[in-house]
Design goal:
The complex is a heterodimer. By secondary structure, chain A is an all-alpha fold. Chain A is built from 14 helices and no strands. The termini of chain B are far apart. Classes of the chains: A mainly alpha, B mainly alpha. The interface between A and B is medium-sized, with 19 and 23 residues.
Amino acid sequence: MNELSASSRITYRAVMVRPGVTRRIRGLSDRALAWLFITPTIVLLLAINIFPLLWTIYLSFTNYRANRSNVPTIWLGADWYQSILTDPDIWAAMQVTAHFVIWTVVIETVLGFGLAYLIDKKFRGHGMWTTIILLPMMLSPAVVGNFWTFLYQPQIGLFNYVVAFFTGRAASSFQMLGDVTLSPWAIVIVDAWMWTPYVMLICLAGLRSIPDYIYEAAEVDRASKWRQFWSITLPMALPFIMLAVLFRGIENFKMFDMVNLLTGGGPGSTTEVASITLKRAAFESWRTGYSSAFAIILFVTVFGLANIYVKALNKVKSR
Amino acid sequence: MSVDVTPSIARGGLVDRLLRRGPLEAVATTIIAAGVVMLMQPFLLTLYSWSFATTLFGTVMFTIVSKVRE
C-alpha cells in the first residue's frame, strides 16, 4: 500500500513539474516521434550536402568567380560543360587519372588477394602479420604523403637506396618525384602500399565466407588444389573482389590529398589527376563557374560508379 | 472458331522478362561503365566529349529502373 502511494506521489510530482510537455510528448505517435528524432539529421544533410550540390549545379551555368563576387553573375547555359568536354588538357588530365586508377586497382587487387589467400591459411602468427600488414591503411594520407616524399629523396631517400642495391644504379641517379616517366609510377607505388591492406581485408572476408564443406566435397572428388582454386575459391570470392575493385576505383578517381602532397601534379602536368586540375581551376585561377561544371562532371561519374558499387554490395549481401 | 493466343502470350512473356529490374539495371550499369571508359580513353576526343552525356543517361536510367518491380 505504502509502495503504491509512493509511486503515485512520484508520478504526481513529475506531472506537476511540466504537465504541458509530458502531455504533448505522450500525445505523439511513434511515427511523429521518429520524425522528431530524424529531423535534425535531415536538416544537417540538406544544409551541408544537398544545398551545396544544388548551388554548385547553379554556379556551373554561370560566370561566377569567388574572388570577384561583386561582378554581376551572367547565365552562360552549358558553355562551361562544352568547354571542358572539348578541352584536350582536361582530356589529358583524365588520362593521367585513368593511368593512376587502373594501375593502382590492378596492383592492389592482385597483391591484396594474394595476401588474403596466404593469411587465410592460418599459419602460426597470422594474427600478428595481419596487424602488421594493416598498419599503412591506418595512417593519414597526409602523413603517408610526407614520409614518402622523404623516402623518394634522391640523396637521402631509403627507396632510392633499396632500388640502387638491387639494380646496381647509383641512388642519386634517378628522381622518383622529379622525373616525367617515373613520377606517375611513384604515386601508384605509394597508393598501392597504403591501400593493398584494405583490399586484402575485403578479400579475406570473401575467402572466410566460403563454407568448408565445399572444399571437403571437392577433396572427395579428388579435385586438385589448382582446380579447387579456379572452380571454388575464385568464383566465390569474386563478388568481394568486385566490391574492392569498385571501391578503390571510386576512391582513386577522386584522389587528391596524397598526390597533392607527393607531386602537386608535377613535374609539368604528368601527375595532374582530375582533382588537382579542379583545385587549380577553383582556387588558383578562381574560375568558380568553370570548376563547378568540372566538379559536376566528376560527381556524375562517381555517382554512376557508386550505383554499380551498391548493386555489387547488394549481390554480396544476398549471399 | 478458334483464336490462337500463343504469340501474344509469348510477347507478354518477353516484355515481362525484359521490363524487370534485373535486366534494366544491367543495361544501365553497362551504359555507366561505357561512359566512364569513354571519359578516360586516350583514343578519340569525340568519345570523351560524349562521355558525360552517356554517364548521366546511365545514372538517371539506373535511378529510375531501381524503382521498377523485381
